[in-house]
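Deliverable D2.4 — example input (structure tokens):
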């Protein structure tokens, strides 16, 4: 009976998290969602301060969803943009974002995050397929506007400053392992190219399609 229950739960969660084939329209929706997340951050109490944004060498915007019963899975997607030597921001490159959690979990939580990367080398860690947040590079919660006294050189030298919004109900003792990973197949489809993450971020070989330009323009305004 116990074995049957376990197999049933595995099948249930497998079906729940099965993914349909992704279309280019789906990927455009992801870009637009990340733009909306950044817009909402900057118009609320979670806003990233202007001087923090000016120090950014890269920005990561992540949209995740966590649902849990005994075993929770946080899965999602995001984009990364890097600031190029000429001061212009790169194409938004799609990435995957996931987190496995083990423990007692109740409810569901939507998690939206903005990562401000303050050094030029950290984004390149994603070239190796997977980046573990807080492990491969130090990460701390970024200071908000009300915490101006915390703006100091030590904070700005931290490779990743993380700003997060959480919605929904969630409770539990968990062990987490958050990660970001490159998603070449999504970018091949979105940009109709075989160039991969390094070329998309650090070259001008691929022109920005109209669907990604509003996000690029927003980031350029916020972090000139």
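Example output (designed residues):
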């Amino acid at each position: 009976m116990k074995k049957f229950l376990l197999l049933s739960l595995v099948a249930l969660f497998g079906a729940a998290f099965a993914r349909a084939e992704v279309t280019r329209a789906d990927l455009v929706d992801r870009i637009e969602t990340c733009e909306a997340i950044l817009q909402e951050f900057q118009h609320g109490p979670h806003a990233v301060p202007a001087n923090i944004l000016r120090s950014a060498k890269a920005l990561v915007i992540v949209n995740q969803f966590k649902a849990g019963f005994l075993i929770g899975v946080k899965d999602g997607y995001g984009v990364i943009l890097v600031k190029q030597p000429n001061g212009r921001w790169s194409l938004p490159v799609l990435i995957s974002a996931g987190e496995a959690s083990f423990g007692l979990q109740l409810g569901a939580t939507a998690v939206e995050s903005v990562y401000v990367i303050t050094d030029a080398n950290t984004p390149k860690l994603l070239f190796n397929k997977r980046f573990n947040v807080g492990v491969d590079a130090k990460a701390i919660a970024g200071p908000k506007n009300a915490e101006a006294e915390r703006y100091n050189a030590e904070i700005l030298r931290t490779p990743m400053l993380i700003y997060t919004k959480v919605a929904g109900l969630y409770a539990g003792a968990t062990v987490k392992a958050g990660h970001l990973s490159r998603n070449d197949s999504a970018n091949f489809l979105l940009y109709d190219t075989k160039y991969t993450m390094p070329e998309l971020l650090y070259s001008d070989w691929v022109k920005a399609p109209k669907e990604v330009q509003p996000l690029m323009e927003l980031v350029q305004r916020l972090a000139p």
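Residues 59 and 77 are 14 Å apart (CA to CA).
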